[in-house]
Every structure is written in structure tokens, then in C-alpha cells.
DNA sequence: ATGGCCTAGGATCTAGGA
């Protein structure tokens, strides 16, 4: 069983890439972030032709997440509120960043964590509030679903070796100590980094800035993750980053990360 | 280098990304 995560930076701009990738990489579930399209305009038909059911949670212009699945998912939920309630969640569901569903006994949570803009900004405070809410959400889910695959664009590189050059990291968005600590707090509910089950090296990245020819120079960051509950990490077989789509013409700035289970 | 590029929306620029 394979689950992949991929921030496509607009599903309409990346439709050919997504369908081409699925044809050579027929994963069971593909988790998309930054679809940037309302549900009515999501290109559902292109994926149903390939045998995928699309569960979509979009908005105009920004954010947006989707689950593409080769079989129907149970208990599909949109946002934090179905688990935590509207009173707790407040404005954190206004941006469409969370979708989840059950494949057999594996509950798959697909996240687009807020970027945060810059350390100390209003958006950074929103990111930290969002991560605190995420911790409560995942803790609640774990009581019902022991096999949890939490994946997506986390917009955080957890360790210095997840960045091509960690100089100045304390002040940089995606690597500042406070947001790293917030993510570690989330993981403390009982989640492990799926990639690190198989690989301890630095130099493995999932995102490269469009500017400065960062991909060609391998100036990347590992910010797209699969986090696994203890029950599920025992069944993990591999976690790989597919660099190929990042080499294609007009690529997303992110590339897929694939988790495989027994 | 408060730089470099890309997307959507709506319009020849701004917001947001990371």
C-alpha cells in the first residue's frame, strides 16, 4: 500500500504533471496541497479516467487540499472542526488546509501547514496557533485510529541537515526554533518521521525555491513529510523522494514523497 | 540583496508563497 504527498502549486497548472506521474507511479492514495481551486472547478474527470476518486477541499486562489484514492475512503473529514468542534477551531478552518480519510485500517491525514511568511509576523503567529490546534486534533484522532499517516507540506525543516545550508536558520521561516519546537510538540502525541526510519543522511530535499536556479544547485529543504503512529511505523517498508517531476518543464517547486506499507 | 520566480485574479499590478 502506497501513500504519496505532493504540493503541486495549482492543480490546474500541474494537471499534466499529476496525471503523468500517476500513470508511472500508481500509488493508492495521492495527497495534494495548494490545489488553488474551488471544488466546482477541480479537474475531477482527469483523475477518474485513471481510476482515482477525488475528495476535494478547495478555495479560491489559495491553499486547498485533496485526496486522490484508488478505492473509496471511509470517514472523510474536512478541516479540524469535525473532530474538535467549531468553538475550539475558530478561524483556523477558514483556510482549506486539512482533509482526512480512512483506507482500510489506515487513517490518512493530508495537511497544508501555513507558511508563516516571516518570523514574528502575524502569519507566523497564525502558523503557531494552527500547529497547537493540529496537536489536539491528532491526539483526538489517535484515540480512534491507531494507524495514522499524517502527511503533507509542513513548511518546517525539523533538523539542520534537512536544509542545504542551515546558516541563519534561527531567523528563517521554516527553520526557526519556535516553529520547530511546535512541530516536535505535535509529534509528541506519538508520531515518527517516516523518512528517518530509513535514512539518517542530510542532503535529501523535497522543495527548491524557483529563484536562483535552486534545484540545479540542489539548494533544497526537506519540508514535505509523512509522520506515522507507532502502530503504522511497524508496517513501513520504504519512504522515498521522487526528484523526477521537479526536472520537468514548468514544475511545482515541491516534489512527491512516497510512503509504502506492508 | 527588502534581490532573483511562479500562480491566481483580474488587469499590465497585488497578494501570497517559502
Automatic annotation (TrEMBL):
Cofactor(s) needed: Mg(2+)
Q: Which InterPro entries match?
A: AP_endonuc_1 (IPR004808), Endo/exonu/phosph_ase_sf (IPR036691), Endo/exonuclease/phosphatase (IPR005135), ExoIII-like (IPR037493)
Return the protein name: Exodeoxyribonuclease III
Protein encoded by which gene = xth
- Read off the lineage from the record: Bacteria, Bacillati, Cyanobacteriota, Cyanophyceae, Leptolyngbyales
Q: What are this entry's molecular-function GO terms?
A: double-stranded DNA 3'-5' DNA exonuclease activity
Q: What is its EC number?
A: 3.1.11.2
**Of which family is this protein a member?**
Belongs to the DNA repair enzymes AP/ExoA family.
Swiss-Prot/TrEMBL keywords: Hydrolase, Magnesium, Metal-binding
- Where does the Endonuclease/exonuclease/phosphatase domain lie? 4-254
What Pfam families has UniProt attached to this entry? Exo_endo_phos
- Tell me the Gene3D superfamilies matching this sequence: Endonuclease/exonuclease/phosphatase
